[in-house]
Design a protein that fits this description.
Its main location: membrane. The protein is an all-alpha fold and 443 residues long. It has 17 helices and no strands. The longest helix has 34 residues. It starts with 16 loop residues before the first helix and ends in a 7-residue tail after the last helix.
Protein backbone atom coordinates (compact mmCIF):
# COMPACT_ATOMS: atom_id res chain seq x y z
CA UNK A 1 0.00 0.00 0.00
CA UNK A 2 1.27 3.50 -0.76
CA UNK A 3 2.48 5.68 2.07
CA UNK A 4 0.35 8.65 3.20
CA UNK A 5 0.89 11.87 1.32
CA UNK A 6 2.54 13.59 4.29
CA UNK A 7 5.03 16.14 3.05
CA UNK A 8 4.51 15.17 -0.57
CA UNK A 9 0.95 16.45 -0.61
CA UNK A 10 0.17 18.81 -3.46
CA UNK A 11 -1.68 22.03 -2.88
CA UNK A 12 -3.41 23.88 -5.70
CA UNK A 13 -2.61 27.19 -3.96
CA UNK A 14 1.08 26.61 -3.35
CA UNK A 15 3.68 23.97 -2.66
CA UNK A 16 7.16 23.28 -3.86
CA UNK A 17 8.28 23.04 -7.46
CA UNK A 18 8.77 19.30 -6.96
CA UNK A 19 5.21 18.89 -5.69
CA UNK A 20 3.84 20.87 -8.61
CA UNK A 21 5.90 18.79 -11.04
CA UNK A 22 4.50 15.61 -9.49
CA UNK A 23 0.95 16.84 -10.01
CA UNK A 24 1.70 18.00 -13.55
CA UNK A 25 3.13 14.60 -14.44
CA UNK A 26 0.16 12.80 -12.91
CA UNK A 27 -2.46 14.88 -14.69
CA UNK A 28 -0.55 14.56 -17.94
CA UNK A 29 -0.69 10.77 -17.58
CA UNK A 30 -4.41 10.90 -16.82
CA UNK A 31 -4.96 13.11 -19.86
CA UNK A 32 -3.05 10.73 -22.10
CA UNK A 33 -5.19 7.88 -20.83
CA UNK A 34 -8.62 9.55 -21.13
CA UNK A 35 -8.46 12.32 -23.72
CA UNK A 36 -7.52 10.31 -26.86
CA UNK A 37 -10.46 7.96 -26.36
CA UNK A 38 -12.95 10.73 -25.52
CA UNK A 39 -11.53 12.77 -28.37
CA UNK A 40 -12.19 9.94 -30.83
CA UNK A 41 -15.71 9.55 -29.47
CA UNK A 42 -16.37 13.25 -30.04
CA UNK A 43 -14.97 13.10 -33.58
CA UNK A 44 -17.49 10.36 -34.38
CA UNK A 45 -20.22 12.31 -32.62
CA UNK A 46 -19.62 15.44 -34.64
CA UNK A 47 -19.29 13.62 -37.94
CA UNK A 48 -22.67 11.96 -37.40
CA UNK A 49 -24.26 15.24 -36.35
CA UNK A 50 -23.09 17.36 -39.27
CA UNK A 51 -22.70 14.86 -42.14
CA UNK A 52 -26.22 15.91 -43.08
CA UNK A 53 -24.66 19.14 -44.45
CA UNK A 54 -22.94 17.03 -47.11
CA UNK A 55 -25.79 14.57 -47.63
CA UNK A 56 -28.22 17.39 -48.32
CA UNK A 57 -26.20 18.42 -51.40
CA UNK A 58 -27.74 15.30 -53.00
CA UNK A 59 -30.75 14.15 -51.01
CA UNK A 60 -32.63 17.45 -51.09
CA UNK A 61 -33.89 16.52 -54.55
CA UNK A 62 -34.70 12.91 -53.57
CA UNK A 63 -36.61 14.04 -50.48
CA UNK A 64 -38.10 17.22 -51.97
CA UNK A 65 -36.43 19.52 -49.40
CA UNK A 66 -36.31 23.30 -49.81
CA UNK A 67 -33.56 25.30 -48.08
CA UNK A 68 -36.07 26.37 -45.42
CA UNK A 69 -37.16 22.76 -44.86
CA UNK A 70 -33.53 21.67 -44.62
CA UNK A 71 -32.82 24.39 -42.06
CA UNK A 72 -35.86 23.31 -40.06
CA UNK A 73 -34.73 19.68 -40.18
CA UNK A 74 -31.25 20.62 -39.02
CA UNK A 75 -32.63 22.68 -36.16
CA UNK A 76 -35.31 20.24 -35.02
CA UNK A 77 -32.53 17.88 -33.97
CA UNK A 78 -32.15 20.09 -30.91
CA UNK A 79 -35.75 19.63 -29.75
CA UNK A 80 -35.01 16.11 -28.56
CA UNK A 81 -31.49 17.11 -27.58
CA UNK A 82 -32.67 19.94 -25.31
CA UNK A 83 -35.54 17.99 -23.72
CA UNK A 84 -33.37 15.04 -22.71
CA UNK A 85 -30.08 16.86 -21.95
CA UNK A 86 -30.59 17.44 -18.21
CA UNK A 87 -32.14 14.00 -17.44
CA UNK A 88 -29.31 12.27 -19.30
CA UNK A 89 -26.63 14.23 -17.47
CA UNK A 90 -28.21 13.64 -14.06
CA UNK A 91 -28.42 9.94 -14.92
CA UNK A 92 -24.69 10.00 -15.64
CA UNK A 93 -24.04 11.12 -12.08
CA UNK A 94 -26.12 8.20 -10.79
CA UNK A 95 -24.97 5.32 -13.01
CA UNK A 96 -21.53 6.59 -14.04
CA UNK A 97 -19.82 7.83 -17.19
CA UNK A 98 -18.95 4.40 -18.55
CA UNK A 99 -22.54 3.17 -18.98
CA UNK A 100 -23.87 6.59 -19.98
CA UNK A 101 -21.34 7.23 -22.75
CA UNK A 102 -21.75 3.67 -24.06
CA UNK A 103 -25.54 4.00 -24.15
CA UNK A 104 -25.46 7.32 -25.94
CA UNK A 105 -22.96 6.22 -28.58
CA UNK A 106 -24.71 2.98 -29.44
CA UNK A 107 -28.11 4.69 -29.72
CA UNK A 108 -26.91 7.63 -31.81
CA UNK A 109 -24.99 5.32 -34.14
CA UNK A 110 -28.09 3.23 -34.79
CA UNK A 111 -30.28 6.29 -35.36
CA UNK A 112 -27.71 7.92 -37.65
CA UNK A 113 -27.49 4.72 -39.65
CA UNK A 114 -31.29 4.60 -39.96
CA UNK A 115 -31.29 7.97 -41.75
CA UNK A 116 -30.36 6.11 -44.92
CA UNK A 117 -33.99 4.95 -45.05
CA UNK A 118 -35.71 8.36 -44.99
CA UNK A 119 -37.85 9.05 -48.06
CA UNK A 120 -39.62 12.38 -47.41
CA UNK A 121 -39.32 15.54 -45.29
CA UNK A 122 -41.51 14.17 -42.48
CA UNK A 123 -39.32 11.10 -42.05
CA UNK A 124 -36.27 13.35 -42.16
CA UNK A 125 -37.66 15.48 -39.32
CA UNK A 126 -38.51 12.39 -37.22
CA UNK A 127 -35.03 10.94 -37.71
CA UNK A 128 -33.40 14.24 -36.71
CA UNK A 129 -35.48 14.47 -33.51
CA UNK A 130 -34.61 10.86 -32.68
CA UNK A 131 -30.91 11.58 -33.26
CA UNK A 132 -31.13 14.53 -30.85
CA UNK A 133 -32.73 12.35 -28.18
CA UNK A 134 -30.04 9.69 -28.65
CA UNK A 135 -27.17 12.20 -28.41
CA UNK A 136 -28.61 14.17 -25.47
CA UNK A 137 -26.19 14.50 -22.59
CA UNK A 138 -23.06 13.43 -24.46
CA UNK A 139 -21.15 16.72 -24.60
CA UNK A 140 -22.17 18.16 -21.20
CA UNK A 141 -21.72 14.72 -19.66
CA UNK A 142 -18.12 14.53 -20.82
CA UNK A 143 -17.48 18.15 -19.77
CA UNK A 144 -18.72 17.27 -16.29
CA UNK A 145 -16.73 14.02 -16.35
CA UNK A 146 -13.51 15.90 -17.12
CA UNK A 147 -14.13 18.38 -14.28
CA UNK A 148 -14.11 15.38 -11.88
CA UNK A 149 -10.57 14.53 -13.03
CA UNK A 150 -8.82 17.88 -13.60
CA UNK A 151 -8.56 21.02 -11.41
CA UNK A 152 -9.19 24.45 -12.87
CA UNK A 153 -5.66 25.29 -13.95
CA UNK A 154 -5.65 22.43 -16.48
CA UNK A 155 -9.19 22.70 -17.76
CA UNK A 156 -8.88 25.03 -20.75
CA UNK A 157 -6.10 22.87 -22.20
CA UNK A 158 -7.94 19.64 -21.44
CA UNK A 159 -11.23 20.91 -22.83
CA UNK A 160 -9.48 22.35 -25.89
CA UNK A 161 -7.96 18.92 -26.54
CA UNK A 162 -11.45 17.44 -26.35
CA UNK A 163 -13.10 20.19 -28.41
CA UNK A 164 -10.34 19.63 -30.96
CA UNK A 165 -12.58 16.72 -31.95
CA UNK A 166 -14.85 19.24 -33.70
CA UNK A 167 -11.95 20.43 -35.82
CA UNK A 168 -10.72 16.92 -36.58
CA UNK A 169 -14.26 15.88 -37.47
CA UNK A 170 -14.32 18.76 -39.96
CA UNK A 171 -10.83 18.02 -41.26
CA UNK A 172 -11.43 14.29 -41.75
CA UNK A 173 -15.22 14.10 -42.04
CA UNK A 174 -15.45 16.59 -44.90
CA UNK A 175 -13.07 14.80 -47.27
CA UNK A 176 -14.44 11.38 -46.32
CA UNK A 177 -18.05 12.49 -46.78
CA UNK A 178 -17.14 14.21 -50.04
CA UNK A 179 -15.39 11.07 -51.31
CA UNK A 180 -18.40 8.88 -50.45
CA UNK A 181 -20.79 11.23 -52.22
CA UNK A 182 -18.53 11.39 -55.24
CA UNK A 183 -17.91 7.66 -55.59
CA UNK A 184 -20.60 5.56 -53.91
CA UNK A 185 -23.61 6.41 -56.09
CA UNK A 186 -25.29 3.20 -57.24
CA UNK A 187 -23.38 0.75 -55.04
CA UNK A 188 -25.82 -2.13 -54.47
CA UNK A 189 -28.64 0.06 -55.82
CA UNK A 190 -28.24 2.67 -53.06
CA UNK A 191 -27.67 6.40 -53.39
CA UNK A 192 -24.33 7.83 -52.28
CA UNK A 193 -25.99 9.78 -49.46
CA UNK A 194 -27.44 6.52 -48.11
CA UNK A 195 -23.96 5.00 -48.01
CA UNK A 196 -22.81 8.13 -46.21
CA UNK A 197 -25.19 7.54 -43.30
CA UNK A 198 -24.51 3.80 -43.27
CA UNK A 199 -20.71 3.97 -43.27
CA UNK A 200 -20.56 6.79 -40.74
CA UNK A 201 -23.20 5.29 -38.43
CA UNK A 202 -21.53 1.96 -37.68
CA UNK A 203 -18.30 3.17 -35.94
CA UNK A 204 -20.06 4.87 -32.95
CA UNK A 205 -21.86 1.62 -32.14
CA UNK A 206 -18.58 -0.30 -32.00
CA UNK A 207 -16.70 2.39 -30.04
CA UNK A 208 -19.62 2.76 -27.63
CA UNK A 209 -19.34 -0.92 -26.74
CA UNK A 210 -15.59 -0.44 -26.16
CA UNK A 211 -16.35 2.37 -23.69
CA UNK A 212 -17.95 -0.15 -21.34
CA UNK A 213 -14.59 -1.68 -20.47
CA UNK A 214 -12.18 1.19 -21.22
CA UNK A 215 -13.56 4.16 -19.24
CA UNK A 216 -13.43 4.36 -15.42
CA UNK A 217 -16.31 6.15 -13.73
CA UNK A 218 -14.07 8.28 -11.48
CA UNK A 219 -10.51 8.60 -10.17
CA UNK A 220 -11.53 6.61 -7.10
CA UNK A 221 -12.67 3.59 -9.14
CA UNK A 222 -9.84 3.44 -11.65
CA UNK A 223 -7.41 0.53 -11.54
CA UNK A 224 -4.46 2.29 -13.19
CA UNK A 225 -3.91 4.87 -10.44
CA UNK A 226 -2.28 4.01 -7.13
CA UNK A 227 -3.88 5.00 -3.82
CA UNK A 228 -1.28 7.75 -3.52
CA UNK A 229 -2.11 9.12 -6.97
CA UNK A 230 -5.84 8.97 -6.28
CA UNK A 231 -5.25 10.99 -3.13
CA UNK A 232 -3.33 13.64 -5.09
CA UNK A 233 -6.20 13.98 -7.58
CA UNK A 234 -8.80 14.27 -4.82
CA UNK A 235 -6.71 16.81 -2.90
CA UNK A 236 -6.09 18.92 -6.01
CA UNK A 237 -9.82 19.03 -6.75
CA UNK A 238 -10.74 19.73 -3.12
CA UNK A 239 -8.04 22.39 -2.91
CA UNK A 240 -9.62 24.22 -5.84
CA UNK A 241 -13.05 23.87 -4.27
CA UNK A 242 -11.82 25.26 -0.94
CA UNK A 243 -10.27 28.26 -2.69
CA UNK A 244 -13.62 29.07 -4.29
CA UNK A 245 -15.97 29.03 -1.31
CA UNK A 246 -18.70 30.68 -3.36
CA UNK A 247 -19.27 27.44 -5.27
CA UNK A 248 -22.82 26.14 -5.53
CA UNK A 249 -23.16 22.42 -4.82
CA UNK A 250 -26.92 21.81 -5.09
CA UNK A 251 -28.89 21.85 -8.34
CA UNK A 252 -31.87 23.65 -6.75
CA UNK A 253 -29.64 26.52 -5.64
CA UNK A 254 -28.01 26.66 -9.07
CA UNK A 255 -31.41 27.12 -10.71
CA UNK A 256 -31.80 30.38 -8.74
CA UNK A 257 -28.36 31.76 -9.58
CA UNK A 258 -28.24 34.43 -12.27
CA UNK A 259 -24.78 33.39 -13.44
CA UNK A 260 -26.16 30.09 -14.73
CA UNK A 261 -28.46 31.98 -17.10
CA UNK A 262 -25.79 34.45 -18.17
CA UNK A 263 -23.62 31.47 -19.09
CA UNK A 264 -26.55 29.87 -20.89
CA UNK A 265 -27.00 32.99 -23.03
CA UNK A 266 -23.28 33.06 -23.77
CA UNK A 267 -23.39 29.46 -24.94
CA UNK A 268 -26.57 30.19 -26.93
CA UNK A 269 -24.65 32.71 -29.02
CA UNK A 270 -21.74 30.32 -29.68
CA UNK A 271 -24.06 27.82 -31.33
CA UNK A 272 -25.00 30.37 -33.99
CA UNK A 273 -21.40 30.38 -35.18
CA UNK A 274 -21.44 26.59 -35.14
CA UNK A 275 -24.55 26.53 -37.32
CA UNK A 276 -22.82 28.38 -40.16
CA UNK A 277 -19.64 26.33 -39.87
CA UNK A 278 -21.26 22.93 -39.45
CA UNK A 279 -24.35 23.13 -41.64
CA UNK A 280 -23.69 25.76 -44.31
CA UNK A 281 -19.94 25.58 -44.98
CA UNK A 282 -20.37 23.16 -47.94
CA UNK A 283 -23.05 25.43 -49.42
CA UNK A 284 -20.84 28.53 -48.95
CA UNK A 285 -17.95 26.77 -50.71
CA UNK A 286 -20.23 25.67 -53.54
CA UNK A 287 -21.55 29.23 -53.96
CA UNK A 288 -17.93 30.37 -54.19
CA UNK A 289 -17.58 28.36 -57.39
CA UNK A 290 -16.62 24.81 -56.35
CA UNK A 291 -18.94 22.13 -57.78
CA UNK A 292 -17.23 18.76 -57.21
CA UNK A 293 -18.36 17.17 -53.86
CA UNK A 294 -14.90 15.71 -53.29
CA UNK A 295 -13.29 19.13 -53.71
CA UNK A 296 -15.92 20.72 -51.46
CA UNK A 297 -15.10 18.14 -48.81
CA UNK A 298 -11.38 18.82 -49.05
CA UNK A 299 -11.82 22.58 -48.89
CA UNK A 300 -14.22 22.34 -45.95
CA UNK A 301 -11.31 20.93 -43.91
CA UNK A 302 -9.29 24.14 -44.26
CA UNK A 303 -11.33 26.34 -41.85
CA UNK A 304 -11.33 23.58 -39.23
CA UNK A 305 -7.56 23.15 -39.52
CA UNK A 306 -6.94 26.87 -39.06
CA UNK A 307 -9.53 27.02 -36.28
CA UNK A 308 -7.83 24.15 -34.44
CA UNK A 309 -4.49 25.93 -34.42
CA UNK A 310 -6.10 29.13 -33.19
CA UNK A 311 -7.97 27.28 -30.46
CA UNK A 312 -4.89 25.53 -29.10
CA UNK A 313 -2.87 28.77 -29.01
CA UNK A 314 -5.58 30.88 -27.37
CA UNK A 315 -6.59 28.16 -24.87
CA UNK A 316 -3.00 27.80 -23.69
CA UNK A 317 -2.79 31.59 -23.31
CA UNK A 318 -6.06 31.58 -21.35
CA UNK A 319 -4.70 28.93 -18.97
CA UNK A 320 -1.41 30.81 -18.55
CA UNK A 321 -3.26 34.03 -17.64
CA UNK A 322 -6.08 32.20 -15.79
CA UNK A 323 -8.41 34.56 -17.65
CA UNK A 324 -11.58 33.35 -19.36
CA UNK A 325 -14.09 36.18 -19.75
CA UNK A 326 -12.17 38.47 -22.12
CA UNK A 327 -10.70 35.56 -24.06
CA UNK A 328 -14.24 34.32 -24.69
CA UNK A 329 -15.52 37.75 -25.70
CA UNK A 330 -12.60 38.42 -28.04
CA UNK A 331 -13.02 35.09 -29.82
CA UNK A 332 -16.78 35.62 -30.17
CA UNK A 333 -16.00 38.90 -31.95
CA UNK A 334 -13.55 37.06 -34.24
CA UNK A 335 -16.38 34.72 -35.23
CA UNK A 336 -18.68 37.69 -35.78
CA UNK A 337 -16.10 39.23 -38.11
CA UNK A 338 -15.93 35.97 -40.05
CA UNK A 339 -19.71 35.87 -40.40
CA UNK A 340 -19.71 39.45 -41.74
CA UNK A 341 -16.99 38.53 -44.24
CA UNK A 342 -19.01 35.53 -45.44
CA UNK A 343 -22.09 37.69 -45.86
CA UNK A 344 -20.25 40.42 -47.77
CA UNK A 345 -18.09 38.23 -50.04
CA UNK A 346 -19.66 34.75 -50.06
CA UNK A 347 -19.46 34.41 -53.83
CA UNK A 348 -15.68 35.00 -53.84
CA UNK A 349 -13.59 31.94 -53.10
CA UNK A 350 -10.72 33.43 -51.06
CA UNK A 351 -12.80 35.70 -48.78
CA UNK A 352 -15.37 32.92 -48.28
CA UNK A 353 -12.70 30.51 -47.00
CA UNK A 354 -11.16 33.28 -44.87
CA UNK A 355 -14.57 34.05 -43.37
CA UNK A 356 -15.18 30.38 -42.54
CA UNK A 357 -11.70 30.19 -40.97
CA UNK A 358 -12.42 33.18 -38.71
CA UNK A 359 -15.75 31.66 -37.70
CA UNK A 360 -13.93 28.40 -36.91
CA UNK A 361 -11.24 30.09 -34.79
CA UNK A 362 -13.83 31.92 -32.71
CA UNK A 363 -16.29 29.04 -32.47
CA UNK A 364 -13.80 26.36 -31.43
CA UNK A 365 -11.95 28.58 -28.97
CA UNK A 366 -15.12 29.93 -27.39
CA UNK A 367 -16.43 26.39 -26.93
CA UNK A 368 -13.22 25.24 -25.21
CA UNK A 369 -12.84 28.28 -22.96
CA UNK A 370 -16.53 28.67 -22.16
CA UNK A 371 -16.87 25.49 -20.10
CA UNK A 372 -14.15 26.61 -17.69
CA UNK A 373 -16.42 29.46 -16.57
CA UNK A 374 -19.41 27.62 -15.00
CA UNK A 375 -17.03 25.13 -13.34
CA UNK A 376 -15.67 27.99 -11.20
CA UNK A 377 -18.94 28.49 -9.32
CA UNK A 378 -20.57 25.05 -9.58
CA UNK A 379 -19.72 21.71 -8.00
CA UNK A 380 -21.28 18.32 -7.23
CA UNK A 381 -24.87 17.78 -8.35
CA UNK A 382 -25.12 21.46 -9.25
CA UNK A 383 -22.26 21.02 -11.70
CA UNK A 384 -23.72 17.97 -13.46
CA UNK A 385 -27.23 19.38 -13.68
CA UNK A 386 -26.30 22.97 -14.41
CA UNK A 387 -23.78 22.16 -17.13
CA UNK A 388 -26.56 20.19 -18.79
CA UNK A 389 -29.05 23.03 -18.20
CA UNK A 390 -26.65 25.60 -19.66
CA UNK A 391 -26.05 23.33 -22.64
CA UNK A 392 -29.79 22.75 -23.09
CA UNK A 393 -30.67 26.44 -23.06
CA UNK A 394 -27.67 27.22 -25.21
CA UNK A 395 -28.65 24.59 -27.75
CA UNK A 396 -31.83 26.53 -28.37
CA UNK A 397 -29.48 28.57 -30.53
CA UNK A 398 -28.77 25.44 -32.54
CA UNK A 399 -32.53 25.02 -32.91
CA UNK A 400 -33.30 28.60 -33.94
CA UNK A 401 -30.17 29.49 -35.92
CA UNK A 402 -30.53 26.92 -38.74
CA UNK A 403 -34.22 27.75 -39.10
CA UNK A 404 -33.48 31.49 -39.24
CA UNK A 405 -30.54 31.08 -41.62
CA UNK A 406 -32.46 28.64 -43.83
CA UNK A 407 -35.53 30.88 -43.99
CA UNK A 408 -33.49 34.00 -44.79
CA UNK A 409 -31.51 32.09 -47.42
CA UNK A 410 -34.70 30.80 -49.03
CA UNK A 411 -36.18 34.31 -48.98
CA UNK A 412 -33.15 36.19 -50.34
CA UNK A 413 -31.55 33.32 -52.33
CA UNK A 414 -28.18 33.96 -50.66
CA UNK A 415 -26.64 33.48 -47.21
CA UNK A 416 -25.75 37.13 -46.55
CA UNK A 417 -28.74 38.07 -44.37
CA UNK A 418 -28.33 34.96 -42.25
CA UNK A 419 -24.61 35.63 -41.81
CA UNK A 420 -25.23 39.19 -40.64
CA UNK A 421 -27.79 37.94 -38.12
CA UNK A 422 -25.24 35.43 -36.80
CA UNK A 423 -22.68 38.23 -36.41
CA UNK A 424 -25.15 40.34 -34.42
CA UNK A 425 -25.98 37.47 -32.05
CA UNK A 426 -22.28 36.76 -31.48
CA UNK A 427 -21.57 40.41 -30.65
CA UNK A 428 -24.39 40.32 -28.09
CA UNK A 429 -22.87 37.21 -26.50
CA UNK A 430 -19.42 38.80 -26.33
CA UNK A 431 -20.82 41.90 -24.63
CA UNK A 432 -22.92 40.00 -22.08
CA UNK A 433 -20.12 37.67 -20.95
CA UNK A 434 -17.54 40.48 -20.88
CA UNK A 435 -19.75 42.74 -18.74
CA UNK A 436 -21.89 40.42 -16.63
CA UNK A 437 -19.14 38.00 -15.60
CA UNK A 438 -16.50 40.62 -14.80
CA UNK A 439 -16.74 39.98 -11.03
CA UNK A 440 -16.72 36.19 -11.40
CA UNK A 441 -13.80 34.30 -9.88
CA UNK A 442 -12.89 33.00 -13.31
CA UNK A 443 -12.52 36.61 -14.50
Amino acid sequence: MDAPLASTEVSSSGGSIAQSATADALFKRIALRLIPFLFFCYVLNYIDRVNVSFAHLQFKNDLGLTEAAYGFGVGIFYVGYVLFEVPSSLLLRRIGARKTIARIMVLWGLVSLSMMFVRNPTQFYIARVALGIAEAGFFPGIVYYLTTWFPNRYRARVLSAFVLGIAVAGITGGPVSGWILNNAEGWHALHAWQWLFLLEGVPPVLVGLCALWYLPDSPQTTKWLSAHEKAIVVQELEGFSDSTSHQISHFGAALKNWRVYVCAFGYFTITWAGSILNFWAPSVIREAGVANPWHIGLLSAVPYFIGAIGMLVVSRHSDARNERRLHFASCALVSALGAVLIGATHSSFGPAIAGLALVAIGYLTCTAIFWTIPATFLSGTASAGSIALISSIGQLGSLTAPTAIGSLTALTHEISAGSYLVAFVLMCGAAVIAVAMRNNAAK
